[in-house]
Amino acid sequence: MKKIKSIQIRFPAVQQGNEDLKAVLVPAAITLIPAFILWYFILPPINLKSLLFWFFLILVLILYTLNKMFYGLKRKAPFSLKRPLIAIPVIVAFILVTALVGSSKLFHAKKYSQILEVTEDTIDIIPSASGSSSIALMDTASAERLGDRRIGSLSSVVSQFNVGDYMQINYQDSPVKVAPLRYDGFFKYRSNRDTGIPGYVVVDPVDMSADYISLKEGMRYVPSAYFSKDLYRRIRFAYPTLMVDNIHFEIDEEGNPWYVASIYDHAVGLFGGETVTGALVIDPVSGKISRYSIDDVPVWADVVFPGDLICDQYNNHSQLQHGFLNSIFSQKDCRQVTTIQTVDEDGDSTSYPDYGYIAKDGDIWIYTGITSVNGDSSNLGFILANERTSETRYVSCAGADEFSGMKSAEGEVQEKGYIASFPSLINIDNTPTYIMVLKDANGLVKMYAAVNVEQYNVVATASTQSECIAKYKALLAGDITSNDEDIDVGSDEGYAEKTITVAKMQTIDQNGNTWLYIVDTDSQIYKAKYADVLDMLLVNEGDTITILTNGETFKFSLNN
Fold this sequence. Notes:
The chain is α+β, with helices and mostly antiparallel strands and about 550 residues long. The protein has four domains: about 90 residues, no CATH class; about 170 residues, no CATH class; about 170 residues, no CATH class; about 70 residues, CATH 2.40.50. Helices cover about 30% and strands about 35% of the residues. The protein is built from twelve helices and 27 strands. The strands form six sheets. Strands 1, 11, 14, 15, 16 and 17 form a six-stranded mixed beta sheet that branches. A hairpin with a 2-residue loop joins strand 3 and strand 4. About 35% of the residues are buried.
C-alpha cells in the first residue's frame, strides 16, 4: 500500500492578520499603564466637553505611537504609523473647528447673552447702613496678615502648616473670611497624614479680629494632601466624568468644615458658554461626597457661582445682546463690569473683573460697578449677584466708579498717605455710598471713609466705622460745619500754578455756600467757593486750564 504524504496547509492571510492585530494590541496594552499614570496626575474628566480631556487623549495617542514604533523596531517587523499620526491632527482640527464655529461668540452671540438672567431693581436692594454688622470692608491682604499673625502665635501649628486661601462667606448672619490650614510641603504631609489638618482660621472683617478654630478630628481629604487623600483625586475617582472647578473651603452654621465644588457644563457647543449646573459638598474628615442640583444646594454653602464667572456672564449678556458685530463696532448698549489692570515683569497688562462683597439675606452677594466699554471713570449703575443662586439685579445709578471713590477718599487724608481698600456698597439715607477702610503702608487699618457715589467729592472719614457713617449722614443733611469756611483764599501764600485738563466739574451746597469741585485727568480733586471762581463759567469739561492751587483748594488763573 502506497504511503500517503502529510499535507500542510498554510493560511498566509490569516497569519498576517494575526501579526497586524498583535502590532495594534500589544502597543495598546503597553500604553495602558503610562496612560493611567498620566490620568492619575492630570485628572482630566472623561468628558467630550472638557478641553483637558482632549489634551489627555492627544498625549495618550502620542504614547501609543511611540510604543508601536518601538514594538516594530524590536521585532524587526514592518509597521505603519499612518493611522495614529493622522488621528492626532484630526483631533486638533476637530477641536479648532468646534471651538471656532460650534462654540464661537461670532455665531452664537444670542445664546451667550441669555446665559445670565438680569433683573432691573431699585437702590432699595442695596443693604442699609443700619445693618453695619453686615458690612465687610476687609480685603484679602489684610485678612491674610491677621490670620498669619494668629497662627504665628501657635508654635505647634505654625511649624507644620500654613494658611490656605481665604473665602468670603456668611456665617451666622455675619460676613467672615475663612481659610483652612494646609500642609507645608510633602514631608510635613507624611508626618501629619494620619491626624490630618487640625483646624482653620476665621477672620471677622467688621471688628478686624482673627481666631483659630481647632477641630476634634482632623481634615484628611484636602487639596494640599497627596495620593489618595488629595481632594481633587478623591472627587475624580468618585465622579470620573464630571467637570468640576471652584473647589474651596467653607463652614456651616455649626462651624463644621466642608469643601464645596461647582459642577460645570457648557451651554454653547462643546466648549462655549461655561455655566454651573450643581455642586459637590465634601466632608474633608471622612471624604464623603454629596452631589446637589442648584435648587438643592445647602443654604449655608455661599459660593457656588464664583464672582469671576458671573462677571464674565454679565459682560456677555450686555455686550452680545445686539449681536457680535455690534459688540466690536458700534457697541450700542454695550457695558462691562469694573475691571482692574495689572502689569507683569515683561510689561504685559492683564485685565480682570474686580468686585466687592455684601452680606444680604443670609447669602454672600458680589457687587460691581457697570460702566461703558470705553473704560471711563464713571459708572452707569451696579449689579448685585447672589453667589449661591446666581440671581443678578441691576441698579441704575450714575456716578463715580469704585476707583474714583477710592482716590477721593485717599485725597481726603492725602497728608497721611493712606491707601483705600476696594469699597463696599451701602445705602445711607436713600443715597448709594461707597464705604471703605484706609490702610497705612504696613497694611494696618487706620481710618474709615464714606464716599457719595453720585457726588464723590462728598467724603467723610473717621477712626471708626460707626463714627464715619454718622459723620457722613450729618454731611448729607448739611449739619456739619465745614472747615472750608476757615479757608483763606485771599492770600496766594502756599499756592502754585498748575496746568490741568478738566475731567469733571461738580457744584455742591454746604452751609449756605456753593462750592465748585473739579477733577483733573489724573483724578486729583480741587475745590473753591463758586463765588470766587466765576470765570470758570467759561470752562468746559475737557478744557486745559491753569489754576493756582495748594493741592486742595484752587483759584482760577487763565484758560489755555
